[in-house]
Request: fold
Amino acid sequence: MKTVGVLPLWDDEKKSLWMLPGYFEGLVSAGVLPLMLPLCDDVSVLEDALGKVDGLLSKKRRKTPGFSPGI
Reply:
């Protein structure tokens, strides 16, 4: 099964990662295993995570004033 790294969205109010409903279900029904990627600035973590996926899915982020996840 192919894997897709999903770049999550950030909820500033809840301080949590999330993804729009339907993305994971759509990928699974297409025969793809979705894996949520971390939001971090540790290059070795990101390289390791990216080495485990066959592709990437990114949803355009809404601008969050004053927030930078460090990547």
